Amino acid sequence: MSKKTETIINVLLIGALLLVLFILEKTLPSTHMLFTVLKKGAIYALVAVSMNLLNGFTGLFSLGQAGFMLVGAYTYGVLTIPVAERANVYMYFDGGLIQFALHPIIAIILAGALAGLFAYLIGLPVLRLKSDYLAIATLGFAEIIRAIFQWDKLGPITNGSNLLRSYPSYKSVLFYFVAAGLCIALIVMLINSTYGRAFKAIRDDEVAAEAMGINLAHHKRIAFVISSFFAGVSGALLAMYQTSVQAAMFKSAMTYEILLIVVIGGIGSITGSCISSFLFIILSEWLLRFLDTETYIGDFHVPLLRSGFRKVVFAVLIMIVVLFFRKGIMGTREFSVRGIYNKLTGKKKKAEKGGGANE
Amino acid sequence: MDWISRNLPYLMAGISVGGQYALIAIGYTMVYGILRLINFAHGDIFMCAGLIMVYSVTVMPMYLAIPFVLVTTVLIGFLVERVAYKPLRSAPRMSVMISAIGVSYLLQNLALYITGGLAQQYPTIPWISDVITVFGVTTKRVTVITPFLVIFLVVVLVLLIRKTKIGMAMRAASKDFETSALMGIKINSVISTTFIIGSFLAAVGSLLFFSNYTGVTPTVGAMPGLKAFVAAVFGGIGSIPGAVIGAFIIGISENIIKGLGWTTFSDAFTFALLIAVLIWKPTGLFGEAATDKV
User: What are the CA-CA distances from residue B203 to residues A12, A272, B83, B219, B220 (Å)?
Assistant: First the structure.
């Protein structure tokens, strides 16, 4: 299969996916669970891929993702609340300091940029550390960011620990897919570039990479800033999806969830992260919901089922993956049209089918 | 005198909280010393001890409940190591850490399921919860007892590590894991003992901690856990006296910051301290010269 046909098939697949989403949106009621799951899945896919860029491709074990998402979410919220609504939202702070509103797209990009700037500053001291010390330090910085954003002295800007709301948001699931897909495509391009090769070299052996002339500090900083940029963008998308945002939700538990998504998908596999995010969200938000409701079959009260059981089952599943399927769904392999083509032609010459829609 | 009576409550609260952090920090520092693993689930084991107490007093009298809490917490710590860490002994360090994060996630969700997400009221333990007056400051007796109990337990622990056979095995294992295994030390039982001691101290810490802060929620262990870890790093990871001193320093400074009216930053301070220590003195106050720590 030539490169050209591969590209064409990929474009067709993406087009078909978007078309299916478009048709679904026209036919199903907009409150259908499917859309909630798809939107959130796309957002988590983006943040999981951004974390994978650091943990899987550069070998920097960072646990600061929730903090950078928070920066992104707040930047978006603060910059886009319509001027007319500000007095209402910032009711404890006399309408707040900022009295203008930007276009959502510009605000999303600024959200990423500000998260990147935070990452640059945090990276100056933190990136000197390695492995688990880096993990703890980034976790700590995420907590500091959260504390600062909730500080009431900054209330005129961040609204203290109160909700940010009333900002504009796109309702269509297509927007989330296009935005997240575009960002993931950028990350894939980065990984396939010379920078990506340098990142992998650093992951595999720092000393050898340095001996080959790779500037360690420079490349680590680039990976950290870019990963945080996309975490910021996904934070902005999350804020948009939720229609209100509060710093208290970006706890370290959120980072853990994202990390576990990355692990389930396979550390070092972009498509693995995407698949596992959708799987994670679909299971936890939709398919396993029944575990949370008390059920009677006839007169028989099904034991254990009540609020919270879903998460327990989920955590057990995750532990099983962590302990027994350490490579996750994809390991370090990628899911691609070419891979499927080769696999199919390896056994049967004729068959050629695209392999379902992967984000 | 007026200044003292105004600030003494913060200082005493700081010393007391510091002592409770110290009991948790010992668990971190011992496990890290031997396995080179940040046991993210340790804070949640501390939380479990709190919950077990809440539920056990409803079915048994207090003098049975306290030993019961200590035993079950030790059992949980032992099981966590056997189930989640032992199978990964030869895996890369990061896999074990991810497993630890998974255990933490599991324990928190389990607690959320059992409690239904509501904060549980911790029972009043007689005598140590009594209100007393020290230098004109009213406080609970636990505040005064904590530092002495901590120092007593630490002395016992240090003696255990210096003088006994298992202590010698622990020291050997933390120096060089593989060689000590070759020398015939039963490495698995050493590691289990470490987790048992750590969980026991966390359970004692939870008895003291929740006598002052009586709400037990599923995530209540996360913050004290992280702070205790910072204390362990600050004191030099692997060093027990270091962890204790680090914990007291963190507990006291945190409460002084609260006293100054900067409550928002009391948590942030801990992490700022961690980062400062890691950058300027990665071996901590009492750490041995690093070979491959950072």
Answer: 59, 40, 20, 16, 14
What is the architecture of the domain spanning B2-280? Answer: Orthogonal Bundle (1.10)
Is residue A254 within 8 A of residue A307, CB to CB? The reply is no
Query: Do A315 and B270 count as a contact with CB atoms less than 8 A apart?
Result: no
* Complex ipTM: 0.82
Q: CB pairs below 8 Å between A and B: how many?
A: 126
The DSSP secondary structure of B26-77, one letter per residue, reads HHHHHHHHHH----TTHHHHHHHHHHHHHHHTTTS-HHHHHHHHHHHHHHHH
A306 three-state secondary structure? coil
A125/B275 touch (CB, cutoff 8 Å), yes or no: yes
Q: Kindly determine whether residue A147 and residue B94, on different chains, have CB atoms separated by under 8 Å.
A: no
Q: What is the pTM of this model?
A: 0.86
Torsion B267-B273-B279-B285 (CA) sign: negative
Exposed / middle / buried, residue A83 (Cβ in 10 Å: 0-12, 13-18, 19+): exposed
Walk along chain A (359 residues) and give the pLDDT tens digit of each residue: 677 888 888 888 888 888 888 888 888 777 778 888 899 999 999 999 999 999 989 989 899 999 999 999 999 988 988 888 888 888 788 777 777 888 889 999 999 999 999 999 999 888 888 777 888 888 888 888 888 888 878 888 888 878 888 888 888 888 999 999 999 999 999 999 999 999 999 999 889 999 999 999 999 999 999 999 999 999 999 999 998 888 888 888 889 889 999 999 988 889 999 999 999 998 888 877 777 777 777 677 677 777 778 888 888 988 998 888 888 888 777 877 777 777 777 754 444 444 444 44
* Contact check, Cβ <8 Å, A132/B106: no
Nearest to A319 among B84, B97, B272 (CB): B84
**DSSP designation for A331:** T
Distance CA A58, CA A134 (A): 13
The DSSP output letter for A82 is -
d(CA B248, CA B231): 8
- Strand ranges, E, within chain A: 164-165, 244-245, 296-297, 300-301
Residue ranges of chain A whose CB lies within 8 Å of a chain B CB: 61, 125-126, 128-133, 135-137, 139-141, 143-144, 147-148, 150-152, 251-253, 256-257, 259-260, 263, 306-309, 311-312, 314-316, 318-319, 322-323, 326
Return phi, psi of residue A321, to 5°: -60, -45
* Residue A135 CB neighbour total at 10 angstroms: 24
Q: Are A208 and A95 in contact (CB under 8 A)?
A: no
- CB contact under 8 Å between B105 and A257, yes or no, is yes
Q: How far apart are CA A41 and CA A33, in angstroms?
A: 12
d(C-alpha A179, C-alpha A171), whole Å = 13
Contact of A164 with A89, CB cutoff 8 Å = yes
| CA-based max dimension of chain B | 63
Residue of A nearest to B113 (CA): A308
Give how far B1 is from chain A: nearest CA, Å.
32
Cross-chain residue pair A133–B278, CB shorter than 8 Å: yes
Task: Sort strands B131-134 and B137-140 into parallel, antiparallel or unpaired.
Answer: antiparallel
